[in-house]
Write a structure and sequence with these properties.
By secondary structure, this protein is α/β, with parallel strands linked by helices. The chain contains twelve helices and 15 strands. The chain binds pyridoxal-5'-phosphate (PLP).
Length: about 450
């Protein structure tokens, strides 16, 4: 079969895929109380399916042309110079923090026992890479309503051993990253922004994820999907090499997959105590991992990236509709607020049951779930109360009072682009119905 015939078949297959999409995924009517209202989900059309099949017909399988395309496009969206895909948001965080330990950074490299400021109320894999690298997390509290740490608490946590700040923009709401960068400059600290929940958010008019030294994105059920996936973004080519090395087994070689001699001196290196001419492809300058993404996933990402601006608008629209519809319940719930000077890209709508309310979080959550409205806790709540963290080496600044409130009283509901106005109105009505039954 010649290539023209193969190309014609490819087009035919992709046309059929579009037809398949129409038949297999028709819109479904919403029936309040019967249909589910998930907290998050995939929003896709025939394009994502076509991209997926297109890449599978290449049968390249590992990172390839779609990953390249995605990385270039995504770096631009995020306002960073280099984007490197990996297999999850957690892996992206692991790569970002591990990169700070690289001997290539010389005196600025983090060493075992150095301290890293982070937040107690959050997702575990924002914090885990700190512990996995034998660094010491210094936990600060979050504010209620914004669910981010205040600049004052971050500043108070910085001590003589502090070398970095690693924090997430919680639920799409930016922390004061401008202030954090000021502190970082003053104290010579690295900053890693975990942007997994906040792609598209801005602080002082600039995309979050573009302030720090490294940033990481995105959990797939979040603003875009690839099935599973993550990305590390950096400004400097030297940092790009470190992250790629750690992602790709620790190798020193920077050849793209499928290439052999990008450096033009494949058999002309002498590194470590290896013999001269040892194949550069098999020289390892870091204790690395293999955290690469497949091209099928990246292909879906390319189609999703086109939709990102609409996704962000829809998330923010849904959030605002919930905010307006629930504002009369302010005496029962702490309603979410955007951080000053920010434009969030909301991941969820958080509600904290006030201590004076005549009901507990569990009761509201159970009521919503009984009406098929999905709910989630604010991730690990106070991580320090979790079994895995009871005996870790760490330092705590302040009393983490709000992290405990978040663990006891906070939950969130969805704002993802797959939710319709009808669903949002049903969510609002269901929360009102519950509160009215308890007044
Ligand atoms: C803030 C934050 N960081 C990291 C992650 C981990 O992402 P992944 O599930 O892709 O590993 C999540 C996942 O929910 C998250 O919310």
């Amino acid at each position: 079969m010649d290539n023209l015939k193969a190309e014609a078949l490819r087009h035919q297959i992709l046309d059929l895929v579009a037809e398949y999409h129409k038949q297999a995924f028709p819109p479904r009517p919403f029936l309040g109380g019967i249909s589910t209202v998930p907290v998050s989900g995939k929003v896709f059309d025939e394009n994502e399916l076509q991209h997926l099949v297109d890449s599978s017909l290449d049968f390249w399988l590992t990172t390839g042309r779609f990953a390249d395309q995605f990385e270039k496009g995504f770096a631009k969206v995020m306002g960073m110079r280099h984007a490197m895909l990996c297999n999850s948001g957690s892996s992206a965080n692991l790569l970002a923090v591990s990169a700070l330990m690289s001997p290539r950074l010389g005196k600025r490299a983090l060493k075992e026992g150095d301290e890293v400021v982070t937040v107690a109320a959050g997702f575990p894999t924002t914090v885990n890479p700190i512990i996995q690298n034998r660094l010491v997390p210094v936990f600060v509290d979050a504010e209620l309503a914004t669910y981010d740490a205040s600049l004052e608490s971050i500043e108070a946590a910085i001590g003589p051993k502090t070398k970095a700040i690693v924090m997430a923009h919680t639920l799409g709401n930016p922390f004061d990253v401008e202030g954090v960068m000021r502190l970082a400059e003053e104290h010579k600290l690295w900053v890693v922004e975990d942007t997994c929940d906040a792609v598209g958010a801005k602080f002082a008019g600039k995309p979050v994820g573009s302030f720090g030294d490294l940033s990481t994105s995105f959990y797939p059920a979040h603003h875009m999907t690839m099935g599973e996936g993550g990305c590390v973004l950096v400004k400097k080519a030297s940092m790009k090499k470190i992250v790629e090395s750690l992602r790709d087994w620790g190798r020193d070689c920077w050849c793209p997959t499928g290439e052999e001699n990008t450096c033009n001196r494949r058999f002309d290196w002498q590194l470590g105590e290896l013999p001269y001419g040892y194949d550069h492809k098999y020289i390892y300058s870091h204790i690395g991992y293999n955290l690469k993404m497949t091209d099928m996933q990246a292909a879906i990402g390319v189609a999703q990236l086109d939709k990102l601006p609409e996704f962000i608008k829809a998330r923010n629209r849904n959030w605002k509709r919930l905010r307006d519809g629930l504002k009369a319940l302010d005496e029962f719930f702490i309603l979410p607020e955007a951080t000053k000077n920010s434009e969030p890209s909301w991941f969820g709508f958080a509600l904290s049951v006030r201590s004076e309310a005549p009901f507990e979080r569990l009761e509201v959550v159970q009521h919503l779930e009984s009406r098929r409205i999905g709910t989630r806790q604010l991730f690990g709540g106070n991580l320090l109360r979790q079994p895995a963290y009871l005996n870790i080496p760490m330092r705590v600044v302040g009393d983490l009072k709000n992290a405990d409130i978040i663990a006891n009283s906070t939950f969130w509901i969805g704002v993802y682009p797959g939710l319709t106005d009808e669903m949002i109105d049903f969510m609002i009505a269901t929360v009102h119905e519950f509160v009215d039954s308890r007044r």
